[in-house]
Specification:
The chain has 350 residues and is of the alpha/beta class. It has one domain (29-274, 332-349): Rossmann fold, CATH 3.40.50. Helix content is 46%, strand content 9%. The strands form two sheets. The chain has a five-stranded parallel beta sheet, with helices on both faces. It has a two-stranded parallel ribbon with strand order 6-7. Helix 5 (128-146) packs across helix 6 (148-157). Bound molecules: 2-acetamido-2-deoxy-beta-D-glucopyranose. 2-acetamido-2-deoxy-beta-D-glucopyranose binds next to loops.
């Protein structure tokens, strides 16, 4: 009897040990995408789409403009902190940071970019394929810094965030005639989802296993689109919201498919549409007062260089606003969206 009990105990203990030692930890947050997650890479390139001047960053640590398109932190920063890592994920092209910082988190995102190469060309920003080239360079630097074995462990266990798509529609499809002459909007959605699939397969081939993919927000409710909605009394542009919902559904389908197709891949679809839509519809539940306009300037059209210190209309307290400029959420809205997503990420990946 005692003998059986002890072997049972030993078995249980070794199982417990196995469980705790194989319980994976996330050693780094690695980010690809557009301005929703760009931590300042556009500061270093020649584009008009920048935000490394005040009042951007006025509520960031030290009141410092970093190149984030907000008054403070953006969602990857909150995700990083929630995993016990740095409170802010640094931009890969930021010369004040090096591989020792990037070993626990790095951002390759570029404001204005999209899945489609034609999107990044509009404002001369970093195309997605180039973000991937930077990532490959980073892999080599990390191997040189911590050794190949440790680097491979970090790269496999890291949580990767991918967030883009809005610019493909608003900056490209609905602004430049080329893609519109080639595709209906539904065909364009399929084209983008195809590109997203190719990109995720390339990430997988490079060793990526833990991935969170964010779809597009209710694009028709961005202040810039509402300002342009003269016919609709500056309400949300329903067509853009419908396109966002359709695109997100297709992207979610892709993620489900890739989880089956790629062994060991664990990808989640981190849909931010509904939470942001809910905030916009019921702002007072979250302590907001203004949803239609951004805080910066008149809030109707200002972003990048038009959102600057000379603009006399900028609001005093950004925490009353859902949007910081005409296109990007305030730190408070970013925080709420991130907090909505984080429990799921912690449950899946840590
Ligand atoms: C985007 O451009 C890169 C570099 O020129 C090229 O390798 C890639 O095939 C292009 N992607 C598409 C979908 O055209």
């Amino acid at each position: 009897m005692a003998h059986t009990y002890i072997s049972w105990l030993l078995l249980t203990l070794s199982l417990l040990l196995l469980l705790t030692t194989t319980k994976a930890k996330v050693p780094a947050i690695i980010v690809f995408g557009d301005s929703s997650v760009d931590a300042g890479n556009n500061n270093q390139i020649s584009t008009l789409l920048k935000s490394n001047f005040k009042p951007y960053g006025r509520d960031f640590d030290g009141g410092r403009p970093t190149g984030r398109f907000s008054n403070g932190r953006i969602p990857p920063d909150f995700v990083s902190a929630a995993f016990g890592l740095k409170p802010a994920v640094p931009a890969y092209l930021d010369p004040t940071h090096g591989i020792s910082d990037f070993a626990t988190g790095v951002c390759f995102a570029s404001a204005g970019t999209g899945y489609d190469n034609a999107t990044s060309s509009v404002l001369n920003v970093i195309p997605l394929w180039k973000e991937l080239e930077y990532y490959k360079e980073y892999q080599n630097k990390l191997k040189a810094y911590v050794g190949t074995e440790k680097a491979n462990e970090i790269l496999t266990e890291a949580l990767y965030l991918l967030s883009l798509g809005t610019n493909d529609f608003l900056e490209n499809y609905y602004t430049i005639p080329t893609r519109r002459s080639q595709f209906t909007v539904k065909q364009f959605q399929d084209f983008l989802v195809g590109l997203a699939g190719n990109f995720i397969r390339e990430l997988y081939a490079l060793g990526v296993r833990k991935l969170s993919v964010t779809g597009v927000p209710p694009m028709g409710c961005l202040p810039l689109e509402r300002a342009a909605n003269f016919m609709g009394n500056h309400g949300c542009q329903q067509e853009y919201n419908n396109v966002a919902l359709e695109f997100n559904a297709k992207l979610g389908g892709l993620i489900a498919k890739l989880n089956h197709e790629l062994p060991g891949m664990k990808a989640v679809f981190a849909n931010a549409y509904y939470i942001l839509y809910h905030i916009i519809r019921r702002p007072s539940e979250y302590g907001f007062e203004v949803t239609r306009n951004g805080c910066c300037g008149t809030g109707a059209f200002e972003m990048s260089y038009l959102c600057n210190q000379q603009n006399p209309f900028t609001c005093e307290d950004a925490s009353k606003y859902v949007f910081w400029d005409s296109f990007h959420p305030t730190e408070k809205a970013n925080h709420i969206m991130a907090d909505h997503l984080i429990p799921r990420l912690l449950a899946e990946f840590s």
